[in-house]
Amino acid sequence: DLYRKVFVFRNDPSDAYVVLRAKLEQPLQNFTVCLRSYTDLTRPHSLFSYATKAQDNEILLFKPKPSEYRFYVGGKFVTFRVPEGRGDWEHVCASWESATGIAEFWLNGKPWPRKGLQRGYTVGAEAAILLGQEQDGFGGGFDVYNSFSGELADVYLWDVGLSPDKMRAAYQSLRLPPAVLAWKSLSYDVKGDVVVKPRLRE
Length: 202
What we know:
Blueprint: E1 5-9, E2 17-20, E3 30-38, E4 45-52, E5 59-65, E6 68-73, E7 76-81, E8 90-97, E9 102-107, E10 110-111, E11 115-116, E12 127-131, E13 150-158, H1 164-171, E14 188-191, E15 194-198
Antiparallel strand pairs: 1-13, 1-15, 2-12, 2-14, 3-8, 3-13, 4-5, 4-12, 5-6, 6-7, 8-9, 9-10, 9-11
């Protein structure tokens, strides 16, 4: 249970990462991924990387620069332009549904205009799920200049698209539906220089 705790990725650039173990029974037709990050990086960095043997960017949340997020599904991506952070925690949620190919992006509890991505696609279930690095192969192939440095918290993955109410609840750290990956019952392995610490502020 990592409630009120954070992963601190201490080095920049970094070869460290955290492996997450999810209980996925079947491929994903829909999903939502949420997390909170706190960093002063201005270079590109990966936040959440979900790779299968067939596709290294099966699901990827990537920040190429302070004013942009990229959301990948099955190797294709859409870009969401955002205001540059003011040196504070940023909470992001990205959801996707295969039937419509609609990609949703929420930043700090607010939805951005929806975009189209990979309609009819299915996300594979046999995955390597990593925080802090971007996979260019299954569970590896890292470029340290895409690594994350800073603090990560409140990481969740659901095998459904969350409703707007639940998206806002995730931002406010309220009660959430059962998740495939849940911060309050996370199964993880730390690889390299990552430290679990209490959160300094709300």
